[in-house]
Design brief:
Chain lengths: 334, 334
DNA sequence: TAGATTAATGTAAGCGCTTTCATTTTTAAC
DNA sequence: GTTAAAAATGAAAGCGCTTACATTAATCTA
């Protein structure tokens, strides 16, 4: 692989000049520029980005930490971030935290030591203190899906409480009063916030939260399936189920169908996140939108603006969920 | 951020010695090692991986190119690769090709120039020649989901033809003879191979391939939805639909349900890939398994073995699909 | 046309680390 | 107590690039 030195030799100019034309900085006469371009082409020269990073202390890459690489939720987030950044000629290094504190930290360290110019972090586990400290470091950081006191200006998050409120109000307005709730894992902030919204909606309607109608799931189809089975087997009567995300709702509905329960005729369902797939099942899932892509867009543009001075977007910290009414909720009988 | 130099100063040893203890290479006395560890801890020293890469010409990171970052197919692939590599202390840099030749190439260049020790590439568009040339470079490359003559030893792929065969045979054995086919985009090799399997199954049963029952989709829900509408509106009769992947099958089924057609009573469906979601819809989708995770596992282990000398897996190039019978195919009437 | 600007190019010192080779220290062998 | 071999350490030359700063060439001013 040819180095900048080979190019300078062939073109008969200095290293500095080659560097100037490669990076399009400083003044270079057209004649010289042409010579350099020719030499580069002839040698099939491509700059060694590692060396560039080391010398310039800038890597043109931004690190992204998500909790998982698969699943319907993080994919679109990564896609949006990659897309924004790539079109600005920045590159993305992705790491996964796997909902594990040690791995999350390790991933952050990796991205940092990898010389990322900025980090976009969707951290589920690490403490607020850790994140506050992280934000004090010299690498700029945006936090996604999380609101942390003291560094609110670095956070892009969804109003999960409101989302929970919206979902539960909807079934309440349809006359349901025995409402089961399949929650996400409560160590995750968004799961707690959504649950809080649910409780608040219940309270608005003068209803008490009933532990017997509560199940803590895992945000996955399996958890919804299992939760539904537990709820049904408990013998407690209920006519609607609010699920803290669409995946669990899908699992729960699958179980109902298996047991011959009709949805929504016998049981109504609301999900959360509005992922694509449940639009394609029957009944189409009523849910709450989660503008995760918009948040990714915002985070990526923040980086572009703050780190590379390239965007002039107005930073919006808090995104609003919206109720998406489809077919899975029906008026309560009686 | 502390550098190795700071550590050496504080520990009162040379740079070389610090490097030795950081990398655990060469001989260092216990006493010295302890001093260095203390100094590192005290300074919160973390090696600059960029500088390490530049100096050692090894980055401990492997590049992964997929066509998309989202969707139910690539997620699990990335997850598996990341998981294998991470447990061997290697890191993953992911880039997306977006089914576009220029972007695929650019992504490969990026990963290469980024100093990856190896590449795992799921290339859809670039030519075989490009890939052959790529494999001749000094960075080791594994190709996933693709079989290229001349570099077969670098390819990990699925027997798509057999998969197509399996899917179509299944509906044929259930007595269907008017079978519609919703294909993936034909510029993708796997779409072509699956179609070929379909045609072969038809031929086995003495049936001719009928253009009127063919639709070229996009491997996405929307394509299946649209394809189904086109097929239905064409007025051609058919009693079963073979879809080249599960996502299109889901879209197609959604349309049927919207139009009040019962599945599988009136129309049978087979998918391909066995992604998680359609297991949770009704009817549960009969499909063909695609051991994409196993392939990811294999590719990652190949890298571990060939590049880092750490695994001793037996390389398996070709993976076999299997029919997964669930509920979406029913015996043809009459 | 001398003198002052400005443009174009070159020189060389790093960036933080690895690694070869030389040097010093320790251990072993007799 | 020598001496040879082995172990531990250090010195220094890069890895491929960027970037102050210095230098030279070109252009302008009066």
């Amino acid at each position: 692989m040819a180095t900048i030195y080979d190019v300078s030799l062939l073109a008969g100019v200095s290293l500095a000049t080659v560097s100037r034309v490669v990076n399009n900085t400083g003044k270079v006469s057209d004649k010289t520029r042409q010579k350099v371009h020719d030499a580069m082409a002839q040698l099939d020269y491509r700059p060694n980005t590692i060396a560039q990073s080391l010398a310039s202390n800038r890597s043109n890459s931004v690190g992204v930490l998500v909790s998982q690489l698969d699943g319907p939720f993080y994919g679109p987030l990564m896609r949006e971030i990659e897309s924004v950044l790539r079109s600005a000629n920045k590159h993305v290094i992705i790491a996964a935290g796997h909902s594990d504190a040690a791995q999350e930290k390790e991933a952050v360290e990796f991205l940092l030591s990898r010389g990322c110019d900025a980090l976009i972090v969707d951290a589920e586990i690490v403490t607020n203190d850790y994140l506050r400290k992280l934000c004090q470091g010299k690498t700029p950081v945006v936090l996604i899906n999380r609101h942390v006191e003291g560094i609110a200006d670095r956070c892009v998050h969804l109003d999960n409480l409101k989302g929970g409120l919206l979902a539960s109000r909807h079934v309440l307005e349809f006359g349901h009063s025995r409402i089961a709730y399949i929650s996400g894992p409560l160590f995750k902030l968004d799961a707690r916030e959504r649950l809080q919204g649910h409780k608040q909606a219940l309270a608005e309607h003068g209803l008490a939260f009933d532990e017997a109608l509560f199940f803590e799931g895992d945000f996955r189809e399996e958890g919804g399936y299992e939760g539904m089975a537990t709820l049904l087997d408990s013998g407690e009567p209920f006519s609607a189920v609010v699920c803290a995300n669409d995946q669990m709702a899908s699992g729960a509905i699958a179980l109902c169908l298996e047991r011959g329960l009709r949805v929504p005729e016998e049981i109504s369902f609301v999900g959360f996140d509005d992922i694509p797939f449940p639009r394609y099942i029957s009944p189409k899932l009523t849910t709450v939108s989660n503008p995760i892509q918009d948040m990714g867009h915002m985070a990526a543009n923040w980086v572009l603006k703050e780190v590379y001075g390239q965007s002039d977007i107005d930073f919006n910290h808090r995104f609003e969920p919206q109720l998406v009414v489809r077919e899975s909720v029906q008026r309560a009988l009686g």
